Predict the 3D structure of the following.
Amino acid sequence: MDGLKLRALEPEDLDQLVRWEADHVDAGLRVAPYSRAVLKRYLDESHRDFWEAEQVRFVLSTSDGRALGLFDVFNAQPVHQRAEVALLVDPAFRRKGLGRQGLKLVEDWAFARVGLRSLYAEVFTDNTAALNVFAASGYEHSGVLKAWYRVGREFRDVQLLQRLRS
């Protein structure tokens, strides 16, 4: 898609954000979804500076503002000049290269504007789609963290991926 951009969360994104956050529960990342009220408070606080909040959430959108997904930069470490990155592309828009395009926009912002030296991601080892997006975007395999996340009654491994500023 042409004309993609990263933009800030807006109040009109709340309904979509509630739906997307529910997907995280289905994926096993949380045991309960965030409430609408919690997400509204998050939106209200999203104006804080990246280094103050140590995180930012971008909406990947079309040039007319339609939301296609979310890109989070979080766990920011100013001394070490690194942060974690995660992405979510709306299921209706997957398999169109939006993950790679969004990651490129995030990298441009993180490396050129913020001055980060490294971005990293933790991806479940069986999440082939996400692993492929990160690999195609130049992220290198840096290891596997065994039994890293508890999902239900089992523990799951994640692959650690990293991209250094060139």
User: Anything to note?
Assistant: The two ends are 26 Å apart (CA to CA). The first helix runs from residue 14 to 26.
